[in-house]
Amino acid sequence: MDVITLFKSMIERNSETPDDGGALGWISDYLEGYTPIFINREEVQNLFIYKKFSEGPHLCFAGHVDVVPAGDGWETDPYKAVEKEGYIYGRGAQDMKSGLSAFIQAVHDTTAFKGTLSLLLTSDEEGPAKNGTVKVLEVLKEKNLLPDACIVAEPTCEKVFGDAMKVGRRGSINGVIELIGKQGHAAYPEKAINPIHKVAQVLQHIAGVNLDDGDEFFSPSQFVITDIRSGMEVTNVSPGKLKMMFNVRNSTKTDQGSIKAFVKQHFGELNYTLTLEQSAYPFMTEVNTRIVQTLDKAVEKVTGVKPKHSTAGGTSDARFIAPCGVDVVEFGVRNDTIHAPNERTSKEEVQKLYEVFRELINSF
Fold it and tell me: 202 is in which domain, residue-wise?
């Protein structure tokens, strides 16, 4: 089987989170000679599969078989791999059955390696991500099977294939501020404390404000307000409380402590409560590590393009892998239609991604 045939077959597996569409069992059978460990939790299916060729480093490819719901607006069947003008359409074409197929085929075609090759796969990346990669990593720690380096094949390129790889990710901190006032009649504002009026006085000082300056790899951490709600949808009652939600995609220069201080600076004289939840922590893989250096050379050799090192975008399962002491990077096809109707990837990109991974394995 070639990588394009494999890619098409993966798209045609309906694997909306947490369903794996039967993919993990098939992959286990396809990779003959590899030792599979199925780690299923509740409705989530996970697979870690590895082969020790010889003594040497352990290189892992990680990814997810699950996809988001197809939604409306498709011109083709989202679960049929439709080929048009050099592109293959289908849900998961970019995120991330292209990367998944490329590294499965690359590993399948490898007959010699100075070390151990493995795949870490889950059906719970697009969902809560509570029973997926994190559970696999717990088992790998127990069995002393954690890899030395890992590549997550999420779509990373921007304008042309090969132009960007992730060497880290920002963290994500979600916050809720509840501002307490005093409800009253709108005709007697002097007898009430209107939290909408109070928050209006500070919005210009917090909305979209950078909490740090960022650095060479990380953009500044910005205070992004995502929702404000208050009142009873009537015109004659001033509300007694207000709820404001926000998100900070934080660099290594901003943490929960600095966010608390920022909120206190602007809300300190008001009656408020603050709740923070960190769903991901920022991480950075040093550019002089073996995985970064080898992937840089493999991408440039196959594409002729030198990839930039980026930490932009949302979160991925790399956020769980890095804290385990594993050097982790991300590289995949272009990211311009993920989660959208008519998601697509070019055949050329999938083929070249396979070639990049083959070169990476050969020279790691």
Answer: 172-280
Of 66, 95, 126, 255, catalytic: 66
> Which are the contacts of 280, defined by CB distance < 8 A and separation ≥ 6?
169, 170, 171, 172, 315, 319
66 is catalytic: yes
Domain CATH number, residue 208: 3.30.70.360
Q: Which of 20, 124, 125, 154 is catalytic?
A: 125
| pLDDT tens profile 28-37 | 999 999 999 9
Neighbours of 339 (CB within 10 A): 14
Write the pLDDT tens digit of every residue in 245-274. Answer: 999 999 999 999 999 999 999 999 999 999
Q: Do 22 and 119 touch, CB atoms closer than 8 A?
A: no
Are the CB atoms for 23 and 4 separated by under 8 Å?
no
Last residue of a domain, one of 252, 280, 308: 280
Question: 83 an active-site residue?
Answer: no
Residue after which a domain boundary falls, among 280, 314, 342:
280
